[in-house]
Design a protein that fits this description.
The chain contains 4 helices and 4 strands; from the N terminus they run E-H-E-H-H-H-E-E. It has helices spanning 24-29, 44-49, 58-69, 76-90; strands spanning 7-18, 31-41, 94-103, 115-122.
Length: 125
């Protein structure tokens, strides 16, 4: 049996100001968002070679998040999906990824800290 292991690289609480939402006010005034991203891959080559070219580069992952969050979407589900699509395209050695998008300023008549969407992808072998 061939052994393999997965390494998780996580980005936590990346903060952005963005213009997503169904309501006109959200798209005009914007609001604060937080993003978490967990990416899983086999880091064996990265460790053996001690070289970022074999790793999932978190700086490039942050760039992907910034590109998506800089657009304007109605739904946070769409934001999450677009982030995962871009990450999957960017990193062919990615095995699995989970993104959480938190909208911190929710324009409803209730007191909530935030709303959060979580989406995952698993690359089929």
């Amino acid at each position: 049996m061939k052994e393999s292991s997965l390494t998780r690289l996580s980005i936590r609480d990346a903060e952005y100001y963005a213009y997503h939402g169904v309501k006109t006010e959200e798209r005009e005034l914007g609001g604060k968002y937080q993003i978490d991203l967990d990416m899983y891959y086999d880091a064996k080559n990265a460790v053996i070679n001690d070289d970022v070219k074999y790793a999932l580069n978190y700086e490039e992952a942050m760039f992907c998040i910034s590109e998506v969050i800089g657009e304007s979407y109605n739904l946070v589900e769409t934001v999450a999906s677009e982030i995962l699509n871009m990450i999957a395209d960017k990193f062919p050695n990615l095995v699995r990824a989970t993104v959480r998008v938190r909208k911190m300023n929710v324009p409803i008549r209730r007191v909530v800290k935030c709303i959060e969407i979580e989406q995952s992808i698993v690359r089929q072998k």
